[in-house]
Design a protein that fits this description.
The chain is of the alpha+beta class. It has a domain of 74 residues. It is 25% helix and 28% strand. It is built from two helices and four strands. The chain has a four-stranded antiparallel β-sheet with strand order 1-2-3-4, with helices on one face.
């Protein structure tokens, strides 16, 4: 497998929600012209320039309410709609139970 090259990773969309203690960034990237993918990151909101990253983990209702418009906008930037996703996925889509393990292609 080839090594990751930052110069081939294109940021298509990015918005940051700033809360009381945390900020959450919603970003869409496309690597080497490939299918756009969503990335969510959480950073500790501090006064200094250094903003340490933290595991995204669970979201509070306030956090989810804050990033929901960004998620909708990110979907728009990712292109396609329900019909194009169904064609792309074919019959591989299935419901996943909370306790069921599954493999991810990406």
């Amino acid at each position: 497998m080839s090594r990751y090259r930052e110069d081939l990773d294109r940021k298509i969309f990015s918005k940051t929600w700033v809360g009381k203690n945390w900020q959450i960034e919603v970003t869409v990237y496309s690597y080497q012209g490939g299918r756009p993918k969503l990335q969510l990151t959480r950073q500790k909101a501090t006064r200094s320039q250094h903003r340490p990253y933290a595991k995204l983990g669970r979201l509070s209702r306030d956090e989810l309410d804050g990033i929901m418009p960004f998620l909708q906008e990110a979907l728009h930037h990712m292109g396609g709609g329900k019909s194009s996703r169904k064609k792309e996925q074919g019959n591989s889509r299935k419901e996943v139970d909370d306790h069921e393990e599954f493999d991810s292609e990406d």
